[in-house]
Write a structure and sequence with these properties.
Layout: E1 2-6, H1 10-22, E2 26-30, H2 33-42, E3 47-51, H3 59-68, E4 75-79, H4 84-93, E5 97-100, H5 105-119, E6 127-130, E7 133-136, E8 142-144, E9 147-149, H6 153-164, H7 172-178, H8 190-202, E10 209-214, E11 218-224
Parallel strand pairs: 1-2, 1-3, 3-4, 4-5
Antiparallel strand pairs: 6-7, 7-8, 8-9, 10-11
Helix pairs in contact: 2-3, 6-8
């Protein structure tokens, strides 16, 4: 998936770009509206994240210009303007969603994923399965084979993220920012502690281990004896 971020604040841009890239996306960046328009028209993107207060061309005009060119890629506005009128104007201009600052990256990431799925006609799954591990996203029931597994809310969210990214190594940083909504602190061991508890519930009595630590890289859900 390829994302276009149009944001003039370098700190916010760096935070967002890192999050999307860690999540497996290709992310391009423009720091002003004119450059963003050029990139949006020259390259095919799966979605765009656009700030409203941009130099050279503001976000609303930028979105209008993109839509005038019959470009239908999903667009989410990211703005400090939180008034209802601002949201309505943004949506009427042609955006598909509106998220106010400050924001959690996990919410932005989830909203972008939802917009992309909707644009491609992909329905949201109601359950996840990997090997003999099953998760019902509606009832929030988890079982390993026929054995039910009781998880705390944070453990459920962590396992859901691992299952959605099965066989992909995910770093502690990504887990902290996308599951916990915390900025990454390299000194904390909260992820290791939660993984340990989750592994104890999922793998302890199973002949096939699923949750693995990849030293120096992170964690992965994969089949291994």
């Amino acid at each position: 998936m390829r994302i276009l971020l149009i944001e003039d604040d370098p700190h916010i841009a760096s935070f967002i770009l890192t999050g999307f890239r860690d999540g497996g996306f290709t992310a391009d960046h423009a720091e002003d509206g004119e450059k963003g328009l050029g990139m949006a028209l020259e390259t095919t993107y799966d979605a765009a994240v656009i700030d409203l207060m941009l130099p050279k061309m503001d976000g609303l005009r930028l979105i209008e210009e993109i839509r005038k060119r019959k470009n239908t890629m999903p667009i989410i506005i990211l703005s400090a303007k939180s008034a209802v009128d601002d949201r309505i104007k943004g949506l009427q201009t042609g955006s598909d969603d509106y998220l106010t600052k400050p924001f959690s990256f996990s919410e932005l990431f989830a909203r972008v994923q939802a917009l992309i799925r909707r644009s491609k006609g992909i329905s949201e799954p109601t359950s996840l399965a990997y090997a003999d591990l099953h998760m019902n996203l509606i009832t929030r029931e988890v079982r390993r084979g026929e054995k039910p597994i009781l998880l705390q809310p944070l453990e459920f969210s962590l396992l859901e993220y691992l299952m959605r990214n099965a066989e992909k190594v995910v770093s502690r940083r990504v887990i902290m920012e996308q599951v916990w909504d915390y900025h990454f602190d390299p000194e904390t061991n909260v992820v290791e502690a939660r993984i340990c508890r989750l592994r104890d519930k999922i793998d302890k009595e199973a002949h096939l281990r699923l949750i693995h630590t990849i030293r120096g890289a992170g964690y992965v859900l994969k089949k291994s004896s």
